[in-house]
Amino acid sequence: MARFGTKILVSLMVGVVILGTVHFYKQLEANPVFDLGLISNYRKLVPVAIIGSGPAGLGAGVYAARAGLHTVILEGSKPGGLLMGTTDVENWPGEKLILGPDLITKLRSQNQDLGVKFMTATVEKVDLSKWPYEITTTDQLKLNALSVIIATGAVPKTLGVPGEQEYWGKSVSACAICDAPYFKDLNVVVVGGGDSAMEEALQLAAYAKQVTIIVRGDSLRASARMQARIQALSSKIKIVFNSKIQKIIGNGKEVTGIELITKNLVSKESTSNQAQIAQMPIDGVFLAIGYDPSTKLFAGQIDLDQAGYIKVQGRTQATSKPGVFAAGEVSDSYYRQAGIACAEGNKAALDADRFLQSIGFNSELAKQNLTRYFQPKTTKSNLVSSISTLDELEREVTQSKIPVILDFWAPHCSACTQMLPNFADLAEQFAGKVKFIKINTDESENLVRKFYILRIPTFVICRAGKVVKQFTGFKDKKELAEIIEQFSG
Description:
five-stranded parallel beta sheet; 24% strand
């Protein structure tokens, strides 16, 4: 019996050794070798590459730069992230009240003062199978990162109902701060029950005739403070519970109504729970129904949870891949606060610094490789001029021998300000072939009327003084380049 037991024990021990060996080799296969001797083979080295430029990315930049690490922030298609579409921020430490875009401007300026480099680039691909990790932008520029901080945030969810895509950027929006002025004295709906939805409604109430908040459940998820602000405007804002939009109706140009499903909750004692379907005349639909994490680039390379958020380890910001860290709403589905995202960015930078130290990357080695560091080029912003009068239009556009891009924007429009750096880059790319001109709609009423601008951002392409094409809504740099290419010949 003892001999038999010994055989079982030996077999178990052998099994454990085999399993352990298999796991070890799987780990070797999954994770690259961190050989610092390899970095002399690269010319576009980035010790800390931060993907994303919201509070998490900017928080990471501050701490990485203060650690003496060469740091590059890849801003993405929407620089500044979701905070750029926020009005009053009352819960940022040290600021009693500050506009979201102003907060981002301060954080960005702080990063620049510390030496952080910014790229108005969107990442197309990230290869975490080899080290240094390879980051490819939509311009096909390849960077070699010794560590990566993912701060790509989240994107607004959509309803997925008929009419939504057809009227997106016309009368369907996810940004009241951008589009509210265009719904003056009109009737609009806001979909959602959280703080974001309340903020959209408050922004719209300053312009619209009537704002209706449509809530899927029977109560609001918004904070007590936000609910109190909505209640104070009950004559202008009403709430419809237990309802959802099943169709957005329009006339081909703009929204004219919605098809609404509402549960008939007669009383608590009643068993009736039949849905009523009704058409509701409406002029605009604003969505605030939550967000999906921007993790598509990393699927299959690092561990994600069932909802697609990046998993981080313990109290750190480390992901399942050594040298790769995540911060902000790309990994946080619970708190979803700008202050917390910024703090997680701080933590991610500290984690990245410790990782680099652990593999032997020190200040001496950093000095030796200075010439191999990637340095983003500076955009010649003076290639984009501004006009505000009809006389300037005549001189700069009508008499131009090359196509002209007129970018109608306003400081209060987050999508507009996010597109400005892309236009600056493209002005350099298409120098001599296309002329780029900005028009601030707040200061150019005559030009707004002349070109029938109803929404911003809008950009107009002119050739020989005549309008060739007009585009409305946010476009990233790649989309803009593809459009402009068609008219640059």
